[in-house]
Specification:
single chain, mainly alpha, 9 helices, 0% strand
Length: 281
Amino acid sequence: MSDAIFRLPFRYDLRLTTGMRWLRQLGMNTRASWRSFFYVLAFAVSVVVAALRPAHWRSTVRNVLARQILFTGYQATRFISVVALLVGISVVVQVQVWTAALGQKALLGPILVMVIIRELGPLLTSFIVIARSGTAMATELASMRVLGETHVLDGQGIDPFIYLILPRAVGAAISVFCLTVIFIGVSILAGFFSGLLLGANTGTPWQFFQSVFGAIRPADVFNVIAKTWLPGLLMGCICCIEGLSIRGMATEVPQAASRAVVKSIMAMFLASAFVSILTYL
């Protein structure tokens, strides 16, 4: 028999080579993504372990923590309240109107708990904190890296992990939790009073708040705590990692901030989906 039957056409061989290269690149990207995921996860665990040791919370570290909470949490309260007010007017009022129109007032509390407390509150708050404070955190640390301030701290015997990363990550987690509680409270109050002005038949204030807070279950409390502390901690860790990972060029600062925001948003949605699965099981 002729050996021609064992020869592969040139085009087919080229496509096979291209396909193998594509699979190789896909595998490399997947492995890099998993390495990055486990690195951030291990970094977050290290922050939690370090935060539980009182010896790490010296006056200088507590000062950085207080300033981080002031910027990330307190100074964002007004903007979070405005967003919560708009969400309360647009979402809570509609739920009141439609449940009253359909004669299903008993569903008012469970729907608001599911929409506002479980999902919208933590997600919107985390997104705002990432956009507002995540970029600032990554830019600040990247600028310190460019100016050589991190090397100065290391030369003075100050651990950059304890002084720079620990208070920022913990402060971000505390701020996201507190801002989410404010968001939920403002949105529900704004929705109720807006419903009164628009004539939504939701009953007395006691009936409204009893319907909402009576629908809260222990799983909802776990959901709020997990969806605020976990994304906040991951956001703080990711922004610190990206800010300190540059090589020292000023042109890398905006790139580090952009990567920090993108990765923080992805981590927020992944953490939120994971907690939602645990909550609804």
